[in-house]
């Protein structure tokens, strides 16, 4: 297997684990462009409005 395809598959797996469907779609497009068959692969199904690489800050509790 081509090194580029292997790298893209590893990158794709990370995006699937982190639930970033837009990034998965971009990697899928690159894999198709390189001639890799994606029919047997599952895709992320939940659409997220915005994608972030960092978790949001925790809110402080109010003391009464």
Key features?
0% strand, 64 residues, mainly alpha
List the helices and strands and how they pair.
Layout: H1 3-17, H2 21-33
Helix pairs in contact: 1-2
What features would you describe in this structure?
This protein has about 60 residues and is mainly alpha-helical. The protein has one domain. The protein is built from 2 helices and no strands. It has helices at about 5-15, 20-35. Helix 1 (about 5-15) packs antiparallel against helix 2 (about 20-35). The longest helix is centred in the N-terminal third of the chain and has 15 residues, at about 5-15. The N and C termini lie far apart (about 60 Å). About 5% of the residues are buried. The model has no long low-confidence stretch (mean pLDDT about 80).
Helicity, as a percent range: 40-55%
Rg measurement, Å: 16 Å
Helix-strand string:
HH
Largest sheet: none
Number of domains: 1
The overall pLDDT, averaged over residues, is 81
Quaternary arrangement of the chains shown?
single chain
Q: Roughly what fraction of the amino acids lie in strands?
A: under 5%
Q: What is the end-to-end distance?
A: 62 Å
Low-confidence runs:
none
The total of helices stands at 2
Structural class: mainly alpha
The beta-strand count equals: 0
- Broad shape: elongated
């Amino acid at each position: 297997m081509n090194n580029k395809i292997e790298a893209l598959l590893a990158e794709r797996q990370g995006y699937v684990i982190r639930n970033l469907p837009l990034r998965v779609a971009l990697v899928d497009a690159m894999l198709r462009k390189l001639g890799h068959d994606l029919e047997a692969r599952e895709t992320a199904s939940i659409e997220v409005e915005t994608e972030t690489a960092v978790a949001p800050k925790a809110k402080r509790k109010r003391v009464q």
